[in-house]
Amino acid sequence: QVQLVESGGGLVQAGGSLRLSCAASGSIFSINVMGWYRQAPGKQRELVAAITSGGSTNTADSVKGRFTISRDNAKNTVYLRMNSLKPEDTAVYYCNADITHYKAGGLRETFDSWGQGTQVTVSS
After folding, report:
1. 22: Cβ–Cβ under 8 A, 6 or more apart, which residues?
2. Is the pLDDT at 1 greater than 90, yes or no?
3. How far apart are CA 14 and CA 2, in angstroms?
4. What is the mean pLDDT of the chain?
5. Are 37 and 48 in contact (CB under 8 A)?
6. Nearest to 94, CA basis, from 2, 3, 22
7. DSSP type of residue 76
8. Could you tell me what percentage of the chain is helix, strand and coil, using 3-state DSSP and rounding each to the nearest 5?
9. Distance from first CA to last CA of the chain, Å, rounded?
10. Which tens digit of pLDDT belongs to each residue from 77-101?
């Protein structure tokens, strides 16, 4: 069983910083892209940032220059450093990963995995 466990959300004042972490665990063969999405009340889930196993990143224009995504491949962990937070950054943040894992019989399977979400609230 493969799972993603997020941590680091919370309540912060505007202009403050938070760092989110997401660790993948289980019978993992490899992880390609890892990323962070967010969903605010009444809005669709949107991509915040993503990073490949080679370190190439893609960051949403709305957070570019304020948020930084990084990962530790040895730990199967992705991070999101969020600086200069704004009230409009308030949302549930979800970790996502494209994981290839081992199945019974030595087979491998690739699937899209999601974390349970962590709340980030930015007060004005």
Report:
1. 4, 5, 6, 7, 34, 36, 77, 78, 79, 95, 97, 115
2. no
3. 35
4. 96
5. yes
6. 22
7. T
8. 5, 60, 30
9. 41
10. 999 999 999 999 999 999 999 999 9
- Encoded tokens for 49: 């940032």
| pLDDT tens profile 25-51 | 999 999 999 999 999 999 999 999 999
* Residue given tokens 């992705």 in the structure block: 78
User: What secondary structure does DSSP assign to 25-72, as a single string?
Assistant: ESSEEEEEEEEEEEE-TTS--EEEEEE-TT--EEE-TTTTTTEEEEEE
Task: Find tokens 């605010």 and name the residue.
Answer: 40
Tokens (6 digits) for 53: 């196993």
pLDDT of residue 48: 98
CA distance 83 to 14: 10
What whole-number distance in Å separates Cα of residue 47 and Cα of residue 94?
9
